[in-house]
Amino acid sequence: MTEKPESTRIGLIDLGSNAIRWEIVELDPPGYRSLDRKRIPIRIGDQVFSSGEISEEKIEEVSAAFARFARRCKKRHVGQLRAVGTSATREAGNASDLCEAIAKASGIDLEVISGIEECQLLLESVATVIELGKGSSLLADLGGGSIELACVQQGKITSLCSHPLGALRFDLDPSLRGKELLAAVDQVLQSHGQALIQQLADKNFDRYVAIGGNLQAICSILAAQGDLSAQAEVAVIKVAAMSQLLDEMAGLSAGELAERFNLGPDRADSIVPAARAYLWIAELSGQTEIQAPSVSLRVGLIQRILAARASS
């Protein structure tokens, strides 16, 4: 797709493990406003994490979604576009086939970013709404394929790491409920999360900030129950309230979760392990609250575009 750097309209696509998210924004330096956004529940992570590759059918489905977005960008006079693929795309043995198919169908070049770059984008996204220059902060982004963790001291990064503990990695027996289900989730976290435990060892934090689609769904549920507070643009989750909600959710099937809490199927089957992972990190870091700003990887991408234009 031809790039026109002078254009103020930007298109962004995040090809995640659990869904595709796209957005069109109007730049208005030093900020921007969203014109159009959509989440498309096309999941590639389940195939990649089980077989190592993306099926031809799924590649066609993803490519068709990118082609629809390209047409929308043309209609909305988008002049610059950035598309990134994360955990599942990184690990797919046939990622090059996916990139070629997307380019052929839409003219869009998909950039497969590293886990470390995901961490950096997490930091840049969160920094737009939370002051990270004071005290110590633990930042977490839990997606379908990985958890990105950034430790920040007085605004400076002390460690960045991507851990393969996303919500689609758990491969849980769908018949498990309640304490048995949570025990199975904990077993996966303990057996595959040693690097994460080491990253947090002997560290003290003033705040724990987390983002991700499942966490935003949890915020909506807690808000409806009157168990959520907010500070400016940031929701504040009490770990005790989230733990109580998790106990309730763990006793339900995916179908029951979808009906009870108005969740999509691709959210209902991943929200329990995701919630437990967020709480596990809170326990490891000694936190009683989770600050949950409504930002995403795309916000970090926008900040980079704004910075590049300001310096040119």
Q: How would you explain this protein's 3D organization?
A:
Helices cover 46% and strands 24% of the residues. It is an alpha/beta fold. The protein folds into two domains: 9-113, ATPase, nucleotide binding domain (Nucleotidyltransferase, domain 5), CATH 3.30.420; 116-293, Exopolyphosphatase. Domain 2 (Nucleotidyltransferase, domain 5), CATH 3.30.420. The strands form three sheets. Strands 3-2-1-4-5 form a five-stranded mixed β-sheet, with helices on both faces. A four-stranded mixed β-sheet has the order 8-7-6-9, sandwiched between helices. The radius of gyration is 19 Å and the shape is globular. The model is unreliable at 1-5 (pLDDT under 50).
Supply the key terms.
single chain; 312 residues; alpha/beta; Nucleotidyltransferase, domain 5; 5-stranded mixed sheet; 4-stranded mixed sheet; 13 helices; 12 strands
**Total beta-strand segments:** 12
Helical residues, percent: 40-55%
Give me the number of helical elements: 13
Structural class: alpha/beta
> Termini, distance in Å?
21 Å
Principal-axes geometry comes out as globular
**Class of the largest domain, according to the CATH hierarchy?**
Alpha Beta
Largest sheet: 5 strands, mixed
Order of helices and strands: EEEHHEHHEHEEEHHEHEEHHHHEH
CATH superfamily of the largest domain: Exopolyphosphatase. Domain 2
